[in-house]
Design goal:
CATH architecture of the largest domain: 3-Layer(aba) Sandwich
Number of domains: 3
Strand order of the largest sheet: 2-1-10-9-11-12-13-14
Number of strands: 25
Helix content: 40-55%
Largest sheet: 8 strands, mixed
CATH superfamily of the largest domain: ANL, N-terminal domain
Shape: globular
Structural class: alpha/beta
Strand content: 15-25%
CATH topology of the largest domain: Rossmann fold
Number of helices: 19
CATH class of the largest domain: Alpha Beta
């Protein structure tokens, strides 16, 4: 059975049990296996009636919902190619990606999205609303007519085109095949089996990231293949509340959310003060020193007290039933991973790109090494080239970019996918991601600097900072742009503190404080929150020149 046949079989087995639940302010809205199959059948009938044929592209443009899932599965089951897009991106960016994909049908979650696309692309192909596809109802009231998955879905067939985040240029459509998904879902299922162990009840999983991103889509398909109930956050402002009500066994995260959770917990305890703050601070210091191989005298006592009085409350706040939090999309600071582990909440890291079907490495729940992203998943090979670039080959590697043979040839060479990431691997086979090769800052002195580790350290240290961006390519030294509400005095003191620990070529000489953060809306972040460094350099060209002029005047 391929992954789609397994999902349909699991939904039939689920029957009246909830498999997906939308979490609304007014209350949860569950959909059972039977109800989801009914919606899939309704969507499949609409797609057939629309005259689409095998291999046609069908755009999915809507926030997460039960109906999004039903339509996605219907598209795959009809032998079409799903093109899911991020509804929050600008209409101009969306129109550019859709022109590239050449869809036969654009499915919009609401009229506002449809109208925005029409304005940006007057000659767009047919657009339909979810209400037209599903008849305006959340679920069909009658059991679905049995519509078996087409046997024509074979391993090499392209089933989806996912657009990359485009940090340094125009987004590219990554083609993924049924074989890619079969392999990755087999790997995720094996890891989740290790995490959950023997359990007869359905797994409770919480999710908030848009399904148009590869990692989020893989989680969705993994849950649908398993005996799970996936609870969907509909309003990002309610994430903390929804996590509490969902009481999940696990959920996926991006590093910035875990950093914010950690900061909020630490600040809350510090504001309370008293003996609780003393116990927490001493326990945290003792734990970090023990992990660094320098155990503190009487450290065990502080950890004992914290385990009895403080850490249970942290676990209750984050999720009382959590087996683990899964984290990907960017490297997570080792200190943050240790913070949650100290409180008894395992954090499992995952590394991958859209081109690797979201996953290259995954932490083994039995052997987690903080600060690293785990070993290679079964069935794939990973190695480093002479520039320490990570190269990957195996059944998870995409066949190419949509309609871009030249760019495909640039990254797929002699059977290896060139990730563009720099990394290292230890004797235990656990990988660490250092930074993006294209992001390397090469000073005029010839020194190569990966900006991400230093940016992350400063971001954690500067209260109120939204982003830290290092600049200096071709220059004699580094400067920094710091966005957000941080006070200049604090930025200066933290840079001075960190500079004291760095070699001369990595010291930051000047900085620019920018109150407005980089966002998706102002064109300085990608759809999944990564810095568009070229756009940032262009936007702040004047401020960057002023920093270097001041530095030159200071040294003259």
């Amino acid at each position: 059975m391929n992954f789609l046949e397994k999902i349909f079989a699991q939904l039939e087995d689920a029957g009246g049990r909830a498999v997906l639940t939308e979490l609304h302010a007014s209350g949860p809205r569950p959909a059972s296996g039977t109800e989801l199959l009914a919606q899939i059948a309704t969507a499949r009938a609409f797609l057939r009636g629309a005259g689409l044929t095998r291999g046609d592209r069908c755009v999915l443009l809507a926030p997460n919902s039960v109906r999004w899932v039903a339509l996605d599965l219907a598209i795959l089951a009809e032998g079409l190619i799903a093109v899911p897009l991020y509804a929050r991106q600008s209409p101009a960016e969306l129109a550019a990606m859709m022109r590239d994909a050449g869809p036969s049908l654009i499915c919009c979650g609401d009229a506002a999205l449809r109208d925005a696309i029409t304005a940006a692309w007057p000659d767009a192909p047919r657009q339909v609303l979810f209400d037209e596809i599903f008849g305006g109802s959340r679920a069909a009231s009658s059991p679905p007519e049995r519509t078996p998955v087409r046997a024509a879905i074979f391993s090499p067939d392209v089933v989806a085109i996912l657009y990359t985040s485009g940090t340094s240029g125009e987004a590219k459509g990554v083609m993924l095949t049924a074989g890619n998904l079969d392999h990755i879902l087999g790997c995720t299922t094996a890891r989740l089996d290790l995490l959950m162990g023997e359990t007869n009840r359905p797994e409770r999983v919480f999710h908030y990231a848009p399904f148009c991103f590869a990692a989020a889509w893989i989680l969705l398909l993994s849950c649908l293949e398993r005996k799970s109930e996936l609870k969907l956050n509909i309003d990002l402002a309610r994430v903390a509340e929804d996590i509490s009500s969902a009481s999940p066994d696990y959920f996926t995260n991006v590093p910035i959310l875990l950093e914010r959770m950690r900061t909020a917990i630490e600040q809350n305890i510090e504001m309370r003060g008293g003996i609780a703050a003393k116990i927490f601070s001493s326990a945290r210091t003792s734990y970090m020193q023990r992990e660094a191989g320098r155990p503190r005298r009487l450290g065990w006592m502080w950890l004992f007290l914290a385990n009895a009085l403080i850490f249970p409350k942290i676990r209750q706040r984050v999720g009382s039933n959590l087996r683990a939090m899964l984290c990907g999309s960017a490297p997570l600071a080792r200190e943050t991973q240790l913070f949650f582990m100290m409180a008894g909440i395992p954090v499992l890291q995952i590394y991958g790109l859209t081109e690797t079907t979201a996953i290259c490495t995954m932490d083994d729940p039995r052997h987690v090494e903080p600060g690293r992203v785990g070993p290679a998943i079964p069935g794939i090979e990973i190695k480093l080239d002479e520039q320490d670039e990570i190269l990957v080959r195996g059944p998870n590697i995409f066949p190419g970019y949509w309609n871009r043979p030249a760019q495909t040839a640039e990254v797929l060479r002699e059977g290896w996918f060139h990730t563009g990431d720099q990394g290292e691997v230890n004797e235990a086979g656990n990988w660490k991601i250092i930074g993006r090769l294209k992001n390397l800052i090469i000073l005029s002195s010839g020194h190569n600097i990966a900006p991400e580790p230093l940016e992350d350290e400063l971001l954690r240290a500067i209260s109120g900072a939204q982003q830290v961006i290092l600049v200096g390519n071709g220059r004699s030294h580094l400067c920094a742009i710091v966005t957000g509400s941080a006070a200049r005095e604090q930025i200066a003191s933290q840079i001075e503190r960190i500079n004291a620990t760095l070699p001369h070529y990595r010291k930051i000489r000047k900085f620019h404080a920018e109150p407005q953060p980089c966002t998706i809306e102002n064109g300085l972040l990608t759809a999944n929150g990564k810095l568009k460094r070229d756009a940032i350099a262009a936007r702040f060209a004047g401020e960057i020149e002023q920093m270097y002029e001041k530095a030159a005047a200071h040294h003259s």
